Amino acid sequence: MSRMLLIATGLATVLAAAGPARADSLDPVEARADSVLIVKSERKLYLLRDGEILRDIDIALGLMPEGHKQREGDFRTPEGRYFLEAKNPNSDYFLSVKISYPNAEDRARASVQGVDPGGQIMIHGLPNEPRYRESRYSEMDWTDGCVAVSNSDMIDIWLMTGPGTPIEIRP
Question: Which stretches does DSSP call E strand in the chain?
Fold first, then answer.
């Protein structure tokens, strides 16, 4: 079975399990986030519409969560204002959405320091081929600098955001 068919089947199953009350009570426009806020110190991702929280989601961060990402391989999650660039259904993780890091400020800072700013910062679900017990992924920061969420939360992020959605990542 192809990966896209598996994802479509999974999404259909989740939506069906939500039942008609959920499907009927949410206007598709109102259920769409117009911005994303991540507060690293809270380990939370907020899907927002007109400043109101639609969903709050627990997250895991890079192995070195404090401070702004400075360079490739520092295991930090960036801080600043970005936007969601693209969705990847064929990720090594259960779905992923690319964050537009590095921005012009990040590239300039890295240039002054003579380092590569890194890239490929994503919001993603769990690994498709886990190396550890599932509980490890929910109990600690474990990414190389990305923002990780549960697979079920990743479905909501996937459905409620799109390319161009602004995202702010705070300390």
Answer: 35-39, 44-49, 52-58, 80-88, 96-99, 122-124, 147-148, 166-170
Cis ω for the linkage preceding 102 (within 30 of 0): yes
- Cβ-contact 122, 93 below 8 angstroms: yes
The answer to whether 169 touches 82, Cβ cutoff 8 Å, is yes
In a domain, 18, yes or no: no
Reduced to 3 states (helix: H, G, I; strand: E, B; else coil), residue 73 is: coil
| CATH number of the domain to which 64 belongs | 2.40.440.10
Whose tokens are 């679900």? That residue is 125
Residue in 23, 5, 18, 10 with CA at minimum distance from that of residue 125:
10
Q: Are 99 and 122 in contact (CB under 8 A)?
A: yes
**Positions of the chain with pLDDT lower than 70, given as ranges:** 1-30
Structure tokens at 37: 């806020």
The 10s digit of each residue's pLDDT in 54-86 is 999 999 999 988 988 988 999 999 999 999 999
